[in-house]
Design a protein that fits this description.
homodimer, mainly alpha, Neurolysin, domain 3, 63% helix, 3% strand
């Protein structure tokens, strides 16, 4: 029994190593690879994905799992066996051929998407989207589901999440958000966000981002930062080699600044997983929603707080004396917290952001069910933008082509972003209760207490608890929209002078 | 039969893809990886190496080979089957466990070597060297050999090469070199090489290197250049993603400049292999000796020629006006062709370079046979340096710790460097005969004719011909030291005014 678990653990680690090699191939494609490499890289990704799939669905693993499941060992073993069984059951239903086909197609589709976005030409991406939807529908059918195919896909990112529940959660969130957005729109004295669109030199931004990452305790001995078109965080060796990317825009300071803090939040979680559990579920993140709670907390609850800028603004002023020298702290703080309808999700403010997610959730759910045809996606997108956010994209590059996700076949991923905002607010509320001087720490530039709290309460547990269970254990109650609504109402009420 | 070959071809390509993934893991370790990644990377490399080994030695491949060997198809198939059989026969003799052990040990040993070299502390590397020698001896015993274990190792880099023959070749080379070195040392008017050790800014050097790579037709759509401690060239996707690295020293211009031309030579070969044969022997380089002939030709026969500098010197002068503004072309040309005993192989001149190789060949042959104990390596190194080159390293960093090779377990690799010099001279002599205006082309900055000649005569053939056969076919005679000796005698005779 113990022996079966040891063997299973070895297989698990080899699988984790293989997944991490796939992550390196992907990171390299986005950061380094010359254009000529596209076709060969697609073949390599397909090879590794197929291999990982064969391993994780092998009869040998099935047999080891059956033997090990009676294992009554300590919780690490119990967690690893439980999660390995989940992976095995899910993977076993999908033919290797389909897995390889998806890996190969997405590697090429990303390239087509990049071109389509650059040229704002949806027609160049549409055939790939059709192909990917077809493949992902097949995958969902193989996996199986209770009520709708979309659930089977979402489960890969947020285990156990159900569309109907997410829909209900998002409905209350939307109902609470819309009046706030309206009140803010009517407020008489909006911030002047134009100071953020002045000229900010790229290399100065890059140095500043590095300094911010260090300030927030991202460990450069166990990670690195680079530049890519679409910022992301990936793990090459768990806890030991964690890589972030940022994107810098010379006439929009927040893209690089808050983008970096966001990815640092992801990176701190990955660096906080326990090394002794590397390449196993006990050394892996719970879910994408929980992951996103970490990035959003550092980006928004910390990075967009008044306390943070009381500490850090002078440094940013010194970096850009010409553009910010005469801008007061309060004006800068209000500017980075401007709430206004906007086109691009990753640049959206904290209040309207979730509406971008609700839109994507509704659209991709209909795409997977077949209710929405690919050719109608741009129109549907633009209509929903008008209805929910109040503006219509002038082109598809700033509309339905803006995100990389669909080109990577990750349908069911978007909802985890809004869930992350909710988890973040609920965790942060508890952290503030546990650390009464948290705000003062931030004001003094001390970020270690919050990080230690996260390490203790979230990071070190790996996948020991599922997302819902973790939230319950840490905060004493199930996930709710309430802490988030309270947080944004108070914060933006003060900024916009609402009563 | 045709079916067996098709299946074999698929297995071969998957193997090629896997080998290239290993190359990416290695490239990333040398260029990007943060320190924390070392242990996890060693595990990943070991995993892939073990997997590749299992694949290439599988019963299935053996069976497919037997069926396909009666295949009388066109030469590409014949070549692929022949070389796959060679790989299979060789690999099949080595246990997977040993292969994984070697991959794991070398990933860690490289790290130990880097530390040992930085601190010039041989004791920090010695235990790793002992371990690696032991593992490589085991490997050689498994592979088998006629007269000595070293042959089995050298065969991995230069198929068919035999120590006794290399020894004889090197003896005549040494006999021809020593009197020339002596005559040069006695020449009354040596070049002033101090102009090369002035201050050359790193980023200006880097831009210049990029320009040189473009000038020599390295294709940045199918490759990239980076910085690493030990310059190298590697292929991530055959012909489509070829990567070079350089190293820049602020007080030694040639390291970056000629180092880049050298790696570009390797890169042009890799980019010149045929894409339709990617990941198979028909789309792979013949041997390391032939590979080195390409790098040395571009670095020395082209890059250190007077014709090249007549074209390019003004550009370099413009880049470094303060240090080179008043240096005449002829003084610069003579400086970059200074012949003098030196400590570092990669910085050695064309004449003494081969002596550095003979030294390494003799030492590692004795290390493998067990005649030379690891603890005696530094002393033996220093004694041979004194005997053959006339100077003794002041420390091991500039002595036996200078090269990465032993830490990567690549014993038997060094001889291919000197063989590359010989191949290069013999090929270049023929290229000059075929292209009577080659020198004028170089003088006008036209490098395409030489590249086309190399593509036609060498690159496009992949592994169709073994090294010896290729030399015979291209130049009409077997490998000889004569073209090299003639080349250096004439070139340096002119530079040093020898009669």
């Amino acid at each position: 029994m113990g022996d079966a678990y040891s063997k299973l653990l070895e297989r698990m680690k080899d699988l984790g190593r293989l997944d991490a090699i796939e992550a390196l191939l992907d990171w390299d494609q986005q950061v380094n690879m010359p254009p000529g490499g596209v076709q060969g890289r697609a073949e390599q990704l397909s090879l590794i994905a197929g291999l990982a799939h064969e391993w994780k669905t092998s009869d040998e693993v099935g047999q080891l799992l059956r033997e090990a499941q009676s294992h009554n060992g300590e919780f690490a073993a119990v967690t690893n066996i439980r999660e390995m069984a989940r992976t095995f059951d899910r993977a076993r239903r999908v033919p290797t051929k389909l897995v390889k086909k998806i890996a190969h197609t997405t590697a090429l589709a990303q390239n087509a998407w990049a071109t389509a976005r650059a040229e704002s030409d949806f027609a160049k991406f549409a055939p790939w989207l059709t192909r990917l939807l077809d493949l992902k529908r097949q995958e969902a059918e193989h996996i199986g589901y209770e009520t709708e195919a979309y659930d089977a896909l979402m489960d890969a990112f947020e285990p156990g999440a159900k569309s109907a529940e997410v829909e209900a959660l998002f409905r209350t969130l939307r109902d609470a958000t819309v009046p706030l957005v309206k009140a803010i729109a009517d407020a008489p004295n909006p911030p002047d966000s134009s100071i953020l669109t002045r000229h900010y030199g790229r290399s100065a931004q890059q140095s500043l981002s590095r300094a911010v990452a260090e300030l927030l305790n991202f460990d450069f001995n166990q990670g690195r930062t680079d530049v890519s078109v679409h910022p992301f965080c990936t793990t090459i060796v768990p806890a030991s080699d964690v890589r972030l990317t940022s994107r810098y825009e010379e006439n929009f300071l927040p893209a690089g600044m808050f983008g970096t803090m966001h990815e640092v939040g992801h990176g701190l979680y990955e660096q906080g997983l326990l090394k002794e559990h590397a390449f196993t579920p006990m050394g892996s993140a719970v879910s994408l929603g929980i992951h996103e709670s970490q990035s959003r907390m550092w980006e928004n609850m910390v990075g967009r707080s008044r306390a943070f800028w009381e500490f850090y603004y002078s440094r940013v002023q010194k970096t850009f004396p010409d553009v910010l020298g005469s801008v007061a702290l309060d004006d800068f703080y209000r500017a980075v917290n401007t709430v206004s309808p906007s086109l691009i999700r990753v640049e959206a403010d904290e209040v309207t952001y979730n509406l971008h997610i609700v839109l994507r959730f509704e659209l991709e759910r209909e795409m997977i069910s077949g209710k929405l045809a690919v050719r109608d996606v741009p129109t549907a997108w633009n209509e929903k933008m008008g209805d929910m956010i109040g503006i219509v994209p002038p082109d598809d590059a700033r509309g339905c082509l803006q995100d990389i996700h669909w080109s990577t076949g990750t349908f069911g991923y978007f909802p985890t972003y809004a869930m992350g905002n909710l988890y973040a607010a609920q965790f942060f509320e508890k952290a503030q209760a546990d650390l009464p001087d948290l705000n003062d720490c931030i004001r003094r530039g001390e970020f270690r207490p919050l990080l230690d709290w996260l390490r203790e309460n979230i990071h070190r547990h790996g996948q020991r608890y599922r997302a819902g269970e973790l939230v319950q254990r840490v905060t004493g109650r199930p996930l709710s929209i309430e802490p988030f609504v309270k947080y944004v109402t108070e914060k933006f009420g003060a900024i916009y002078g609402l009563t």
